[in-house]
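#help-structures
NK: newbie question, is this the right format to request a structure? protein is GOLI4 protein
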Amino acid sequence: GVFLYNHLQQKVRNAEALAQKYKQQQEALSAQLQVVYEHRSRLERSLQKERGEHKKTNEDFLVYKLEAQEALNKEKQDSMNRYGALSSQHKILKNQHDDVKKQLLDLQLQHNSLKLEHRKSLESHGQKFAQLQQEKDSEVTNLQDTVFKLREENKLLRKAHQEVHSQLLNAQAQMEEFRQLKEALQKMPGLR
């Protein structure tokens, strides 16, 4: 009986020790579970916050997407309007370019015609100039001959004039001698 009693007491002590051990494990698990619950609570709050932020971000993105779509549509419309205006301006400029090209061709033809006419005029003027130059040279030669002849004639006339002047002086001297002689003769009473 004592042995059985001791054996039972040993079992009770073992059971108490085991119970104490389990109790400690349960307290540790409870503490861990409390930590897990708190962590889960924090995670749920964080998740709720993230969901709220995600919802706000999603709403902001939808607003941004809508505004971007409107801006894109407006830009597209503006681009189409600008393209229409540029296309119209391009047609006008193309027509102006064709007109200017046609005018250029006409002016080139006119220029070629004037160039040919100018060349003919130059040739004609060149011939006339050569002819006039020849006539002028001939006239200059004739005038030079005439000037030479006139100079020679002028020399002869000067020489003749000097001779006439000399004869005139001689004649005057003779006349003076005759006058003096006449006066002398008139003064002589026998010859009167």
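mod (FA): yep, format's fine, and the tokens are attached above. The chain is about 95% helix and 0% strand.
NK: thank you!
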